[in-house]
Amino acid sequence: MTLLSSDTKGVFAISVTPFDDQGAIDFDSLDRATDFYLEKGSTGITVLGMMGEAPKMVQSEAVTIAERVIKRANGAPIVVGVSAPGLAAVAELSKKAMDLGAAGVMIAPPGNLKTNEQIIAYYGNACEAAGAGVPVVLQDFPHTTGVNISTDTLNTILAQNEQIVMLKHEDWPGLEKVTAVREAEKGGRRPISILCGNGALFLPEAMARGANGAMTGFAYIEMLRDVVAYAEKGDIDRAQDIYDAYLPLVCYEQQPGLGLAVRKYVLQKRGVIASEAMRKPGKGLTAAAKAEVDRIIARQEKRLKELG
Predict the structure, then answer these.
(1) SS (H, E, C) 274-303
(2) Total structural domains in the chain?
(3) Is residue 224 part of a domain?
């Protein structure tokens, strides 16, 4: 079992959770999605993230999904989202995930945290709940959680909790935070891995600032793989050219409340999942929106051929 570390880099696809039209988990599609992510170049997979509709599941379903993907991935590192309002749920799912062979767990802050002191205390307690030595990914996604973690607070949390080995960076605007975290390392704070979410928005810029890769569910893993690879080689111009071909779809996904519907529609079009269905509350795209996505993808494919 490969555990996450501060040296982890590459692409971790945030997996969708496929459902049938009645809202039951479609495990055949989940298997295909796992294979798809890895075949297209994902270093690992993250399950039960916010885009995996984790809040819509009971604990037993979450455990079953984690087990299924870990077994299917055949040794590739799997991160399990264990975010929950209460620490007891974090502790229970963390233990089960790690016993199943997860590479680490991801924890976002609950929305009731209002002060820096509360945020710092929470992550100390959350790391304890996850279990000694369990690698933790800190998900910094204020636009969804409502919790704004300042750079100073973040650096304090990282200094106090060595098992936090990775930052899932989703603050927006947040490029200055990437720079500040790296500057703190130059000042003596231990290094961590930084993987970027937010649907890959600003990925080339974040890589140039010192990020180590991407952790997001954008349906074209090929883009994430290639942008990260070229950026790591120092060829930011080539990374940007590839990224720009996909940028209209990246931007379209940023519409509030629409991103997951777009993602599932694209994955269904690509033959990965059988249905674009989401669990209620949640609905798919209208016919007009699907036509817009189809047009964006057609232009994307044309541009990629031009780029070679």
Answers:
(1) CCCCCCCCCCCCCHHHHHHHHHHHHHHHHH
(2) 1
(3) yes
161 vs 112, 142, 306, CA distance in Å? 21, 20, 48
**100 domain-assigned:** yes
CATH classification at residue 35: 3.20.20.70
Binding residues for pyruvate: 215
Q: Is 213 left (phi over 0), alpha (psi -120 to 50) or beta?
A: left
pLDDT of residue 35: 98
Q: Which pLDDT score is estimated for 145?
A: 96
Neighbouring CB atoms inside 10 A of 293's CB total: 19
pLDDT recorded at residue 237: 97
Nearest to 6 by CA among 135, 107, 100: 135
E strand map for 82-205:
104-107, 136-140, 164-169, 193-196
Instruction: From residue 289, give the alpha-carbon distance in Å to each of 20, 150, 267.
Output: 21, 36, 15
* Intervals of the chain under pLDDT 50: none
Q: Is 1 part of any domain? A: no
Non-local CB neighbours of 98 within 8 Å, separated by 6+ positions: 105, 131, 134
Torsion angle defined by CA atoms of residues 146, 152, 153 and 157, in that order, rounded to the nearest 10 degrees:
130
What pLDDT shows up at residue 51? 85
| SS3 of residue 189 by DSSP | coil
Q: What is the pLDDT of residue 76?
A: 98
Binding-site positions read 215
Whether 4 is covered by a domain: the verdict is no
pLDDT of 282 reads 83
What is the per-residue pLDDT for 176?
Answer: 96
Instruction: Give me the pLDDT at residue 283, please.
Output: 86
Domain with 143 in it: 10-307
3-state secondary structure of 2: coil
